[in-house]
Amino acid sequence: MTTLSYKNQTVQIDAGELVSFQVADQEYIHQKGSPGWRNADTEMFPIIGPTAAANFSVSTPRGEAIQDQHGLLREMVYERIEATETGAIFQKAYTAGTAIKNSKFPEKSTEELLQWPYDFIFKKIFTLSEAGLEVRFLISGVSGMPYMLGYHPAFNLVTDNPTIIANAREISLAAILEVGNRAFQIADCTEIKLRDKNTVTIKTKGFGNFMLWTEVNNMVCIEPITFYPYAVDQKNLSDGFSRLEGDEAEYTMLISISD
Known about the structure:
The protein is mainly β.
């Protein structure tokens, strides 16, 4: 376990997963074992969304890639590269064509092994400061590599009527629950506020969009994304790819707490 601290803020990271963010002893991250989801956060890369209707195959300039829901990065293990009192760096490195075991097989998928036809290095960088908790992602690889990126943190809810403010619109938890597994789309947005006991403000750079998901009333996932996967048919998921410009791309999410 990696622990970061700054004044009244404390962060705990378990093998690259953000499992706790406490400010003045209040927990803001969904806890494993609580109703809702078995994780606290994860990354969606190089695909966002389901692929079953496309026979788990996604087209790239280098041929077909076998991908399950939300991509293969989540099946890989982070290596901790560096840690200080207020920051930590974790990394996953992938070699093109390497077979990655699919944890959804055989119960939820027909594909035992996943693969991607490009090398990449994916870094997840945590920084705790006066501004709050910044989570930064660096993607390195060959120029032109196609990809989607989404960050999937789950936030703890403690009141009966939390609301989300995005693009000057107020969104209730009931509205998110009604959408179900497709997730509630928020297009062209870089800042969201979650109003619960306190206000959680989330500011992003690079992503450009969000989607919201939950199946319970004690947590909500607020997910910055480069592309909303249900905007196209699953068989055309490649229409949502970004392309790596140069050899590195950077994305950030800042989480701050206020009364």
